[in-house]
Amino acid sequence: MKITRHWRASAPVIMAGACIAAAAALALCGAPAKTAAQQVLPVVQIQWQPQTLLETRFAAKIAEDNKFLLGKLIALAKAGDQMSEQARASWKEGFGATYLSNPRLWIDGRWVDGLDNVLDALRPVVKGSATISIDAASALIAYKEHAGKEKDRDIDAVAKIRVTFSASPGGMILEGELCHSRTCPIIPGPCDRSN
């Protein structure tokens, strides 16, 4: 009976020792080997500060051009199939001062390029339509590196503009671009003035 009492008294101590020994063995043998800590760096996010002078000037020019575009689309809807050479020349001159001086039109699942082709494709779309609206306009501004030319021909920023408009029955997409030169005017594209 004396042995049993000592056994009962020492059992918790022996069990605690066994647990500590098992934990130590796991830590030394069973734990995965630690590798050198790798530093994880966050993704750098850059955002243009809104409403800078350049952004404001582009927005004002695009809004002015959209007003012109809407008026021309409404006039084209009323004119129907008839467009004289004089009217066509007038249209080309007017559009030449906008971001649509060299436009692209998304129609029937393909792009139509160039002002003459776009005008021809637009006529049947808007013909007779009583409801024409410009639904959305967006611009993506990209900087260009200094090309070493004369300042007025050296384009330092290009805005790619996309406009969606509705002329019953569906929506269309027009694209164009504006350029900003180092002397600060905003001018119609094309913006590649390497010649």
Task: Give the structure's gist in a few sentences.
This protein is of the alpha+beta class.
Task: Provide structural commentary.
The protein has 195 residues and is an alpha+beta fold. It has a domain at 53-188: Nuclear Transport Factor 2, Chain: A (Roll), CATH 3.10.450. Helix content is 41%, strand content 25%. Strands 1, 2, 3, 4, 5 and 6 form a six-stranded antiparallel β-sheet that branches. Helix 2 (53-79) crosses helix 4 (115-126). It is extended and about 105 Å long. The chain starts with a helix and ends in a 7-residue tail after the last strand. The mean pLDDT is 75.
Specify the overall morphology.
extended
CATH architecture of the domain at 53-188: Roll
Average pLDDT: 75
Helix/strand class = alpha+beta
Task: Summarize the SSE layout with pairings.
Layout: H1 2-30, H2 53-79, H3 85-95, E1 104-107, E2 110-113, H4 115-126, E3 132-143, E4 155-167, E5 170-181, E6 186-188
Antiparallel strand pairs: 1-2, 1-5, 3-4, 4-5, 5-6
